[in-house]
C-alpha cells in the first residue's frame, strides 16, 4: 500500500470515530450524521481502491479523475446547503408560531389576573 493510502485511511477512521463521539454525546443528530458517514465511507472506499476513481471518471465521461471529485463534491455541498436552508426555514417558522402562542397565553393569563412570571422568573400580578 502506498503511504498516501495509509494516511487517508487513518484520517477517515479518525473522522468516523469523531462522528460517533459527537452522536454519542448528543452534539450531532443522527439525521445529519448520515451525510457525513456516507461521504466518509466513499472516501474510505476510494482510499482502498486506487483505480476506482479512474474507473468512475471513465464511466461518467470525465477526462481527468480529479475533475470528477471536485464536481461531485461541489454538487453534494450545494444539495446539503439547500437541505440546511430548508431545515432553518422550518425552525424559524416554528419559533415564530411558538412565540405567538406564548404571547397569547400571557395575554390570556393577564386578563384572568393570575400571577404571571416575567422573564427573570419572579411572579407578579397582572
UniProtKB/TrEMBL annotation:
Transmembrane spans: 6-24, 31-49, 69-87
Superkingdom field: Bacteria
A Pfam family annotated for this UniProt entry: DUF2304
Record key words, sorted: Membrane, Transmembrane, Transmembrane helix
Protein name (database record): DUF2304 domain-containing protein
Amino acid at each position: 500500500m502506498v503511504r498516501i493510502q495509509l494516511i487517508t485511511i487513518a484520517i477517515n477512521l479518525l473522522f468516523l470515530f469523531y462522528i460517533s463521539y459527537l452522536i454519542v454525546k448528543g452534539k450531532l443528530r443522527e439525521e445529519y450524521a448520515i451525510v457525513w458517514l456516507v461521504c466518509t465511507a466513499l472516501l474510505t472506499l476510494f482510499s482502498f481502491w486506487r483505480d476506482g476513481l479512474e474507473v468512475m471518471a471513465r464511466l461518467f465521461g470525465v477526462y481527468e479523475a480529479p475533475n470528477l471529485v471536485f464536481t461531485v463534491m461541489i454538487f453534494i455541498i450545494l444539495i446539503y446547503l439547500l437541505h440546511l436552508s430548508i431545515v432553518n426555514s422550518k425552525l424559524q417558522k416554528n419559533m415564530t408560531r411558538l412565540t405567538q402562542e406564548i404571547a397569547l397565553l400571557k395575554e390570556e393569563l393577564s386578563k384572568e389576573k393570575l400571577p404571571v412570571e416575567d422573564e427573570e422568573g419572579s411572579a407578579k400580578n397582572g
